[in-house]
Specification:
By secondary structure, this protein is mainly alpha-helical. It has two domains: 153 residues, Orthogonal Bundle (Helix Hairpins), CATH 1.10.287.1490; 71 residues, no CATH class. Helix content is 80%, strand content 5%. A four-stranded mixed sheet has the order 2-1-4-3. The chain is rod-shaped. The two termini are 17 Å apart.
């Protein structure tokens, strides 16, 4: 009778551990999908910001190119006029005008070079972010496809374990079950632990000689005096199992 109760308790503990593990795995997939989705949204926002910056720079680039083109046309006209100048005063005035147009164009060309460099860097960043978005979305699609079948399997396993847990529950006396649940809510697993060479394997502390003697009789399930876990004598349990097998 005692051995059967002990076996059911150990079985219950094993089921509870598996249930916890499977429930965590069941929750893990939606969490992973949520993380990926948040990552994609963040990357899309960055992509939109970059696209806006590129659009502004593209407009500035066009304006600069147009200004450079217009100044180049003016420079050409001034140079043509220079060939027709008849006096030095007019020549000096036109040379000053020419220098001014050429200086402006040099400055605009320098500005354009800076813009083009910025534009190339932003486009590179945009390409990288686009690749990251595609990678994340691909992972999301794979995970969604995988999760549909995996979630069903996990849920089926959980339902099966719940049924086994109910069967184990019905086989354990209520006072022992209450002690088990009470300890489980307050301590980390395991709740049911063996005692080996007088040491509780739950807290790794020696139990009192009196408790150890009572434990070796194999007549009742006791609590560890130190951690309050449910304890049994490992050697007794192993011997009984070997005889049954």
């Amino acid at each position: 009778m005692f051995l059967e109760q002990l076996k059911q308790l150990i079985e219950l503990q094993d089921i509870d551990n598996k249930l916890l593990d499977y429930k965590q795995r069941l929750e893990e997939i939606p969490k992973m999908l949520n993380i990926l989705q948040n990552d994609v949204q963040e990357l899309l926002s960055k992509k939109e910001e970059l696209a806006e910056k590129i659009d502004i720079i593209e407009k500035n680039k066009k304006n600069l190119e147009l200004e450079i083109e217009e100044n180049a046309s003016k420079i050409k006209k001034v140079k043509n006029k220079l060939m027709m100048v008849s006096n030095s005063r007019e020549y000096q005035a036109m040379m000053k005008e020419l220098d001014n147009f050429e200086r402006i164009n040099r400055n605009r060309e320098e500005d354009l070079a800076v813009l083009l460099e910025d534009l190339n860097l932003l486009r590179k960043d945009l390409d990288e972010i686009t690749a990251q978005i595609e990678e994340k979305q691909s992972k999301m699609d794979e995970l969604k496809e995988k999760s549909q079948s995996e979630l069903k399997e996990l849920q089926a396993t959980i339902d099966e374990l719940k049924q086994r847990r109910e069967n184990a529950y019905n086989s354990i006396p209520k006072p022992i079950l209450s002690r088990y649940n009470f300890i489980k809510e307050r301590l980390n697993q395991p709740v049911v632990v063996p005692v080996r060479d007088g040491i509780c394997l739950g807290c790794c502390i020696s139990i009192t000689p009196q408790v150890y003697v009572e434990l070796q009789k194999g007549e009742q399930i006791l609590n560890c005096p130190n951690c309050q876990r449910l304890i049994y004598w490992e050697e007794f349990y192993n011997i009984k199992k070997e005889k049954e097998e």
